[in-house]
Specification:
The chain has helices at 19-69, 71-75, 98-110, 118-121; strands at residues 126-131, 151-159, 166-174. A three-stranded antiparallel sheet has the order 1-2-3, covered by helices on one side. It has one domain (19-174). It starts with 18 loop residues before the first helix and ends with a strand. Helices cover 42% and strands 14% of the residues. The radius of gyration is 33 Å and the shape is elongated. Helix 1 (19-69) runs antiparallel to helix 3 (98-110).
């Protein structure tokens, strides 16, 4: 019996992925996941900014409604206060003049002792209520109230938690 050995070339076919292909796919997936996490962080930041803006709007309408309820104090200029003091007689239903109620309203709106105040609701905040003919001006340290005209300006400033972005909300009430 003769054996014939032929020199056959054996072609091997590789099945599966190589290590380089796997590493490239891991890098591509990692970059995609980093992009998704950045998108999530950005949306959370914008959501927080929108939430704080809605709080500022609610605070402005809160003091605006207090002013509408105390029309005689508004007409006499009693809400045009840079600072205010608490009037304990206004905590009951009687023995409180409109001017005292205005002072108490402004105190509760600005003071840290009230849980619903501007200082407790917004981070790094400052606010004022004043008569101002140009309500869109001013900065947190200098409110730029000129005392002219018949409009009360409600101005609220705050910055986000890291202090990187400053925000302002202004609304006016015609007397």
């Amino acid at each position: 019996m003769k054996r014939i050995i032929l020199d056959n070339q054996v072609k091997t076919r590789v099945n599966g992925f190589t290590l380089i292909e796997i590493m490239v796919s891991i890098v591509v997936i990692s970059i995609g996941l980093l992009g998704l996490s950045k998108l999530q962080l950005t949306s959370l930041r914008y959501n927080q900014d929108a939430y704080q803006r809605s709080i500022a709007t609610q605070l402005a309408y809160d003091i605006g409604n207090r002013m509408r309820a105390n029309k005689s104090a508004v007409l006499s200029g009693a809400y045009n206060l840079p600072t205010a003091t608490r009037v304990s007689s206004c905590l009951s239903t009687s023995a409180c003049t409109p001017a005292q109620m205005a002072s108490n309203d402004v105190y509760e709106w600005l003071s840290r002792s009230s849980p619903t105040s501007v200082a407790n609701q917004l981070p790094n905040s400052s606010a004022t209520i004043c008569i101002d003919s140009t309500p869109e001006d001013g900065v947190p340290g200098t409110h730029a109230c000129d005392g002219l005209g018949s409009q009360y300006a409600i101005k609220i400033w705050w910055s986000n938690d890291d202090g990187a972005t400053n925000f302002r909300f202004v609304t006016s009430i015609q007397v």
